Amino acid sequence: MHACAPPDAVVWPRAVGQVQELAALCYRCRVPMVPFGTGTGLEGGVNAVQGGVCFDLSRMDAVAELSLEDFSVAVEPGVTRKALNSRLRGTGLWFPVDPGADASLCGMAATGASGTNAVRYGTMRPNVLNLRVVLPDGRLLHTAGAGRQARKRAAGYDLTSLFVGSEGTLGFLTQATLRLHPLPEAVAATVATFPSVRAAVACTVQVLQAAVPVARIEFLDEVMADACGRYSGTGLPVAPTLLLELHGSRQGLAEQQRQAEEMVRLNGGSVPAWSEEPEERGRLWAMRHSAWYAALALRPGCQGYSTDVCVPISRLPDVVVETQRDLRDSGLTGPMVGHVGDGNFHCLLVFDARDPAEAQRVHAFAQRLGRRALAAGGTCTGEHGVGLGKRALLREELGPEGLDTLRRIKAALDPHNLMNPGKGVHVPSSAHTDTHRAGGLGGPTSATSPELVLQSWELSGTG
After folding, report:
1. Fewer CB within 10 A of the end CB, N or C, for the chain?
2. Cα angle value 171/344/213 (rounded, 5°)
3. What is the pLDDT of residues 140-154, one digit of tens each?
């Protein structure tokens, strides 16, 4: 959805000291800096819209300070969630935040990622205990203090939460100390189908109101269920569908299953059959995680744009039904899928990028969806971030005072607007007259030439 904007140069630091040296050099030369983890963001967050240097942190892949007794681990940006859980195999612990893609854990912190397990285990925000951040000028910050991993603290401002969700606009997240969780004793999953979208979403609300401790409760509308069933070969019924997973003790799981089945029946849904076999559950969630590719398969050769919102649980049925009606009225292909246990859902919009009229309808729909969520007391993005696509909606969500406060924080930490400029909390260029402009490192408005940049890096002794 967002036009490609490549950087002028890419660097692959292997240690935090190299990130500091490179950042200090770019800061002195007023060159924009764009952090990069694995590139799985969906709102243009790694587009170098003003050129500059992209810092690919994937080669910093140390897993440090694993403490099984404290349920914590420190990871660098090159460590992905699957790699961490593979490392934890056999310890009885895991990291449950699961956005689907095998994303960088530091990138997940930078974007405030969520995913299928958030209804039970929370999003990235409560699962990050500390961050090691390289600030724009090269200084090193530990947001909770060096080496600290307390589960709660009341010492000063919450700097860790400030950087979680900052989308690379305040500094480089070069290490994240994460909270780990015990593996559940027993797990059971099922697929339940419903006569209508409203019935499926209403069932979700009732399951939560009944305090059934679900770990995952995922929604597919009938278009998405059909697409996923055909793409993965699972043959899902063409009907609004919930995928449910329960975690707990073997004794408690039976009672949870009984409660969930009762809620499904009350809403006219099919009585589900439960699976506790890891292979069968793995196939179920692999199908769910392939939803993006299943949606693209509906219109081969077309482009996809995934957008998300999050609303209070009580408003979820109305907002989902209104959104489905809007899709039909707009003539758009946009199957819906969502982590509805916490009010978050996505529209996977598939359109012909060569058709300007259709692309404009997609853009207009995305704006209406964001404003529909705001009108319902929700947010324009539950987990995808602001990036390039939702800056106007962020202004409407926070109001002028909120946005001004964020801009003041940005200006205090990044006075020359060098960190991922043009994204998230966008600072108008007029406020930073000495910032590098579009045109490249060697362009007429750049602060220095590429030759000088490279010579300076070599002279630092680590080039």
Report:
1. C
2. 105
3. 999 999 988 888 888
